[in-house]
Structures are given as structure tokens and as C-alpha cells.
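Before relying on records like the one below, remember that each one covers exactly one chain. Contacts with other chains, cofactors or solvent are not represented anywhere in the record.
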Amino acid sequence: MDFLLEIGTEELPAFSVKPALKYLEESLKRLFEQEEITFGDIKTFGTPRRLTVFVKDLSEEKPKKTQTVWGPPKNIAFDEKGNPTKALEGFLKKNNASLEQVKILPKGKGEYVALEKTVGGQPSEEILAKALPQILDKIPFPKYMRWDSSGKLFLRPVRWILAITSKGVVKFKWGNLESDTYTYGHRFLSGGETLRGRKIEVKDPKDYLKLLKENYIIADHEERKKLIEKVLSEWEEKLQAKVPLREELTEENTFLVEYVYPILCSFDEKYLELPPLVIVTVSAHHQRFFCFQKPNGEVVNKFLAISNNVPKEDRVVREGFEKVLKARLEDALFFYREDLKRPLESLVLQLKGVLQHPKLGTLYEKTQRLIKLGEEIAQNLYPQKVEKVKRACFLSKADLLTEMVKELDELQGYMGFVYAKAQGEDEEVAKALWEQYKPKGSQDELPQTEVGTVLALADKLHDLVGYFGVGEKPKSTADPLGLRRACLGIIRIVEGKNLELDLKGLIEKTYDLFEGLKLSKAELIGQLEEFFKQRLVNYLSPVYGKEIVNAVVSVKGGLEIKEITQTVKELSQILNTSELATVKEAYRRVKKIISKVKDTYEVEEKLLKTPQEERLYNWLVQLEEEFKYLSSAERVEKLARLKEAIDQFFDNVMVMAKEEALRKNRIALLQRVKKLFETVADFEKLPLRGE
């Protein structure tokens, strides 16, 4: 038989539907597996007003099986005359059984009282009816509300619950609602007597999608998405333009409507005076309209809206959409023209009145720190760009006081670029004002200019040091200050541009630019090092595997970004080579014998008494010098050759000698050998083929 569950609600936010569907699918799978109920495919369907799960080929009952329930030993269950004791009577009472059901079975070395029970056989409907209220209670949402006297919590009010199998309704109660066989059609198009839409009885789960489609509901969100994508592709072809933010907007529109009715609209060409990203932001982020952009970046004065209704006249709805967008574009055009009248540099002093954070001071103070930090980074990376970097740092936060950014804060940085360029600033300086916030995530592009690279690093490093220094660290479930994103941004820039960056030294210099930080410099470096380690593991593991990343990160400081990323890449390429297996074996042998030694000793050459000690020591000194110039893969090759000297050492030298001086010297030698290996990784943690 098939099973269908639909939770009917008031309109849910678009972002909440998919996570809720995923939870419902996983919860039902887990329930069926725990109860050993067989099932076929599970499909989920979501709209703003319904969360639906369809389960195909669900078995009708939990399978029956015989279960042995063990009681007390035979000699305790019966007295000398063979009569049941209180121990046996208690066992029978607990299991609701009679004496006639008792069996004597061997167990271990003795005989025990036992009952053989048949368990299972409960109808699947009963199991679902019992479990579904608890599953509904735990659907994860960012916020919850109460809407009736039951006190139940949900993201939006729940209006009906449809729960049926091919055999009939699955009856259960949740709050003030009882499950039934009814759903509802489109609010306006299905012809219902109330705003819920037409009431529809679903007698068989297989009929669900068809019945809803007949009532203007496309319940399958994948089908709605394909319809939107088809229309977008058609208009892209006609207009010879592409839709910016297409994937993101298509996904959102899919969960904003239950029916797809596209309407092409237009706006006055005078608004094309606005920078392209302003038009896109106003249209997409604020109205969820699709804009069209030519290959040269110019925006077409057309946009596509997805309506949830079929109007009697397209013109009426089109004019409504155009009126809404016109009002927003008119405001944006006014802000743009007014902002151009004020030079960005005239706004910098006004940043004295804008707090970055109560514990860190104003944005003007941040600007002054950025100038010094940016100069420091530029001197190391691009000394010829120092003056441009200082200018970019000076202007970096000025656009936050423009009218456009006050209204559309997601345009910060971009508007700085637009205004700086319009006001005659150097092209690279202007571009840096936009690039300072890049990358915004794991997929966003990196800064392209050298000045933008420095400003992006300085801005992120400033905030990490400042916020950590005053105790504002991210929590496990929240990062309102975007510090994980800032850390990942630094990692991606250093890796992507192959930068030689003394991150620890820069953290120390950044620390000195602040006053009144709670943490000491050493505490701050320790916390940031651990923070960077965690981000590196999360960033690199999906590509190279967690074992390799942990093997490298565990022996290096988290601030050595370039070295860690290069080592991980090189080890992943030689993971299953014989050289790496040889090195791992040698490392294990060295590590094992000194693992319990807590003290660290220094090697004294005069105490090297055997040829094997001298040979290993000479190899060690030679490799320590060579390793300064070798890649990780080349180091592994050298370490593989060292194994013979290590084996001869262990075969011929008593490490734990009775004479204390000799013993400590030999331990010291092995400690240095281990340290040499760990310039690459903790080889014991590396997964090799066959292990």
C-alpha cells in the first residue's frame, strides 16, 4: 500500500520548505527502519501552503517474529517439590503469562525458565498514528508561533492534516486538528467557498498530484521549478540577455507560488541611469523579479514576474508589478543622484558618529587601524601599491553613510566602487572598495586587484582580532558577526593567490593597534590558531578527506595556511604510493618507543657511541637543512630513504640504556627524527590503501 501525509498551512517563508521536507522524509525513514517496516521510494512535495510526503509500497504491518524472554534459573524458579517459587510468579506476572507457557531451555552451563513470545504484527497505520504527532512536534524551524488554544508550535498556523494509506485514513490528533482525507485547492482559482480553496477528498495517495493539478496546484516543486526555468530560457533567447542570480531567484520563486503564471513587464528607460547591480538588487532581492542583463553588463528594461494567480487580464497584474518596481527604482535614482553630489572622502570624518561595536569603537577608528594594517600587509605583498592601499583603506567604509547603502545595505562596497570611480579615484582603489568584502562564501570569487586583496585581508583580520579580543566569539549555532566567513575568506585568498603571509606576525601587529582588549596577545593567538584550524579542516576535508587534513593540521599551526593547503594537496596525490607506506611504518616505530617520554632532550654528539647512531644523526642533520627547500612530496621521498637508517638503529642500539646519559641522548635523537617527520604530517593518521 502507499502512504500520504500532507500538512496544510498558511503561507510558509520560501526558505523554510525544503529543510522541513527533508526532516519529514528522514524521520519517516528512521521510523520505518526502527519498526522494520518495508517501504519503497519516498518523495516529498512542497508549496507555500503544504508540506507533503508520499511513501510508495509501504508494508501493511510490522513483521511478526518469535522472541525468547529469559527468566530465572530453573533451580530458583521451582522449589524442591517442583512448585513455582515467588521468583517465577513475579516473572510470569511481569510478562502477563501463565505457567503452561513456561519452557525450560539451556542457556550457558545451566537451564533457565523462558517464554517464547510472538511480537510485531501491528498494522502500519497504528504505528504511524502513534508516531506522527511526535514527528510534527519536532519539525525544525528558525522561529515558532502559537495560533490556537492547543499551544502547538509551528512556523505558521496549520489548517488541516491529510493522512491516508491506500486502505483509508490514518487517524491521529495533533493539537486541535484531526487527520482526515481532505486537502484544499488553490485559494482563488479552484472555486472554493472560503479562502482555503475548494475542499477535495483524496481517497488514494496515487490520485493526490492529479487532483491538486485539476485544482490549480502544482504540488511537485521540481515541476514548478522546471516551468520557471523553461520560461526564463525562452526570454533569455528572445532578449539575447542572461538572468543574474538565476539559480537563487528560481529556487525562491518556486516556493513562493503554488501555480506558475509568468508575466513579462518593463520599466522606464530613465532608470537605466542607475548602476546595473542597483537595478538587479531592487528587482531581485526586494521584489523577487527576474532582470535581464546583456553580455556587456547593461540591464534591459524588462523583467519577469511569476504570479501565483491567473488574472482575467494580464495588463492589470503587469501594471501592478510595474508600479511596485517603479516606486523602488524612483527612490534608488533619487538616492544615487544625491550621493554623487557628496565626495566619499567628505563622509569619512562622519564615521566618528557610527559605532562598529560598543566594545570596539567607531568605524572611523576602524578606518585608522585599517590604514596601518593595510600598509603593513602591502609592504610584505605588494610594496609598490602601498599608497593606493592606504587610500583604499581611508575610503573603505565611507559608502556606509550614503543614502543608497542606508536603504540597500547589501550594496555596501559596490556603491563605494561606483561613487569612487565617478569621482575620479584611481581605478584599482575604486575596485578595492567593492572587493574588500570578497569572498563572501566558499563559492564567491576572490578579489582580482592587488589593492583589493590587501584591503580584503586587512578588513577580515581586523574584525577577527577585534571581536575575539573582546570575547565576541561565534557560538556553535550562531555567528552574527560573520567571523567564520571572515576566516574562510582569508584562507581562500591565501590559497587562491598562493600568498606568503606571516599571519601570526600580522595578528600580533593588529593586536597592538587596539586598546583595551580582554585577551592577552598569547591567548588571542592561541584562540585564533584553533579557529583557523577548524575552518581549514571544514574547508579542505570535502575535497581531500578529513583524515589527510587532520594528519597535516594536527602537527602544524593553524595560521600556516599556505603550507597546510599545499601539504594536503601533495599528500593526496601520493596517498597510495609505496614511499608513503614506508614512511608511515618508520614514523610509527619512532613514535611508539618515545610516546611515553614527557621531557624533551638535546642531542650531544659526543654521546653517539655506535655507528648506527652516528649514521642516523648524520642523515638527520643533512635532511633538516635540505627540508628548508623541499616540497612535502619531496620530503616524503627523502624520509622513505631514511627508513633503512632507522631500522638499523633499532636493530643494533638499545634505546632505553641503563646509563642515563646514553638513554636521554638516544631519546633526544629519536625526538628530533620524529620532529623531522612532522614537518609534513602525523603519518600515523594518514589512511593508506588496505588499512
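The radius of gyration is 35 Å.
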